[in-house]
C-alpha cells in the first residue's frame, strides 16, 4: 500500500463523513494500493476503513498481489473457484462490521454484482459516493506521477516523429493506426494509452472516429490522436496533418484551431476556473465564424485515466490548482469535408502553466 496516499485518503474519508470506502479493480485501486487487476467474473473489493488497516476480498489466484501490497494476512479474504466468492463476502462483511458503515463506493466502477453482495451480507450498510474522495486525492499530481507522464509524452512524440516519414497516399486509416501502435511500442511504451484515432478527409469530421479501410488521399486533413502508457500513466496528444496541398478553407481552419489551442493554454493558471480555459479557446473559434463546428469541451484531466477531472468546459467553475494536469484540444469539424484538432497536455504551475507536449503545432504536409 502507498502509505502517504493512504494517510491523505483517511483525511478525505473523514472530511466527507464516511466510515470507509470500497474500491474495485481500476485506477483508484492502483492509486492507493498498486494492485493491478481487472474487472471480471471474479469479484475483487478493496476496503479502506478510516480507522483501521485495509482489507480485501480477492480470488486465491491473485492473493499474492494483496500480500505484496502489505495487507495483513488476516485481512485478506481469498476464495477459490471451487468455493465461490459468497463465503468471502460474508466473512469480510462480518469481520469489518460493515452493517454499521456509511461506505463510499465508485459510481463509475462498482457493478451491481459487488453492490448486491455487500447489501446482502452487510444488510445495514449505507452506501454513498466515493467519487468526491478519490477526485480530491488524485487531482494534484505528485512528482512520481509527473515524471511518468513526461516519459509518456516523450515516448509518444518519438513515435510520431518516426511515423511521419512513413505516411503515404493510399495507406488506410487502419494501416496507419497499426503502424503508429508499433512505433509507440518500439519507442518504449508499456502499452498504448488508448486505441489511436486516425481519421482522414470526411471521417475527420467525427471527433471520436474509428479507423476505417478508407485510404488517405491528396487534399485530406489527417487527424491523429494517440498516446503512450508508461508506468501506468498516459499521454494524450492530437495533431492534424495535410495530405498534400489543402484548399484555402481547410488551411484556414487549421490556423484558427492552432490559435485557439494557444489561447486556451495562455488562459490557464492557478485559481483560474476551468470554464475560462474553454471560453478562451472557444472564443477564437467563435470569432472566426465556426462556433457551430466546435462540438466538444476544450479539454479533460489526465492521470491514471485518460479522461478524469478537471474538465475544461462551460459551467465548470472549479478553480485550477498547482499540479493539475489536463488537455487543451479545441477543434473544428466540417461535415462531409474533414476536421482539425490540436491537443496538448499541460500542467498548472505556480506561475501559470507548462506544456508537457512540445511537438510542433505548425502544419506538416505528409504523404509525398
Task: Specify the helix fraction band.
Answer: 25-40%
CATH class of the largest domain: Alpha Beta
Shape: elongated
Structure class: alpha+beta
Describe, in plain words, how this protein is organized in 3D.
By secondary structure, the protein is an alpha+beta fold. It has 2 domains: 3-138, Creatine Amidinohydrolase, Chain A, domain 1 (3-Layer(aba) Sandwich); 143-366, Creatinase/methionine aminopeptidase superfamily (Creatine Amidinohydrolase). It has helices at 3-15, 27-33, 63-68, 86-96, 112-121, 131-138, 143-163, 173-187, 248-266, 274-287, and strands spanning 20-23, 45-49, 55-59, 76-79, 102-105, 126-129, 191-192, 197-200, 220-226, 228-230, 233-234, 237-243, 299-301, 308-312, 325-328, 331-334, 338-341, 344-349, 352-355, 365-366. The strands form 6 sheets. A 6-stranded mixed beta sheet has the order 4-3-2-1-5-6, with helices on both faces. α1 packs across α6 (131-138), α7 packs across α8 (173-187) and α9 (248-266) runs antiparallel to α10 (274-287). It is elongated. The model has no long low-confidence stretch (mean pLDDT 97).
Amino acid at each position: 500500500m502507498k502509505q502517504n496516499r493512504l494517510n491523505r485518503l483517511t483525511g478525505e474519508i473523514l472530511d466527507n463523513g464516511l466510515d470507509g470506502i470500497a474500491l474495485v479493480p481500476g485506477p483508484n485501486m492502483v492509486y492507493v494500493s498498486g494492485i493491478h487487476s481487472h474487472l471480471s467474473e471474479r469479484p475483487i473489493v478493496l476496503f479502506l476503513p478510516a480507522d483501521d488497516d485495509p482489507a480485501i476480498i480477492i480470488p486465491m489466484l491473485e492473493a499474492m498481489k494483496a500480500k505484496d501490497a502489505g495487507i495483513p494476512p488476516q485481512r485478506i479474504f481469498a476464495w477459490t473457484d471451487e468455493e465461490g466468492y459468497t463465503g468471502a463476502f460474508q466473512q469480510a462483511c462480518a469481520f469489518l462490521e460493515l452493517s454499521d458503515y456509511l461506505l463510499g463506493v465508485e459510481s463509475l466502477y462498482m457493478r451491481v454484482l459487488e453492490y448486491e453482495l455487500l447489501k446482502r451480507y452487510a444488510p445495514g450498510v449505507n452506501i454513498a459516493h466515493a467519487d468526491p474522495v478519490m477526485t480530491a486525492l488524485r487531482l494534484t499530481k505528485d512528482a512520481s506521477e509527473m515524471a511518468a507522464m513526461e516519459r509518456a509524452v516523450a515516448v509518444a512524440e518519438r513515435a510520431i516523429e518516426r511515423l511521419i516519414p512513413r505516411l503515404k497516399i493510399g495507406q488506410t486509416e487502419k494501416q496507419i493506426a497499426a503502424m503508429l501502435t508499433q512505433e509507440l511500442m518500439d519507442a518504449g511504451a508499456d502499452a498504448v494509452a488508448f486505441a489511436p484515432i486516425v481519421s482522414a478527409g470526411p471521417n475527420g469530421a467525427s471527433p471520436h472516429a474509428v479507423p476505417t479501410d478508407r485510404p488517405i488521399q491528396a487534399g485530406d486533413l489527417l487527424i491523429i490522436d494517440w498516446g503512450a502508457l508508461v508506468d501506468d500513466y498516459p499521454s494524450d496528444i492530437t495533431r492534424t496533418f495535410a495530405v498534400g496541398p489543402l484548399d484555402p478553407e481547410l488551411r484556414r481552419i487549421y490556423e484558427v484551431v492552432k490559435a485557439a489551442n494557444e489561447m486556451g493554454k495562455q488562459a490557464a493558471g492557478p485559481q483560474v476556473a476551468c470554464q475560462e480555459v474553454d471560453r478562451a479557446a472557444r472564443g477564437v473559434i467563435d470569432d472566426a465564424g465556426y462556433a457551430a463546428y466546435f462540438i466538444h469541451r476544450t479539454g479533460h484531466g489526465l492521470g491514471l485515466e485518460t479522461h478524469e477531472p478537471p474538465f475544461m468546459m462551460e459551467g465548470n467553475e472549479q478553480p485550477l490548482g498547482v499540479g493539475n494536469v489536463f488537455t487543451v484540444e479545441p477543434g473544428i469539424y466540417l461535415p462531409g469535408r474533414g476536421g482539425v484538432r490540436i491537443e496538448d497536455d499541460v500542467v498548472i504551475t505556480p506561475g501559470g502553466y507548462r506544456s508537457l507536449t512540445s511537438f510542433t503545432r505548425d502544419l506538416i504536409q505528409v504523404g509525398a
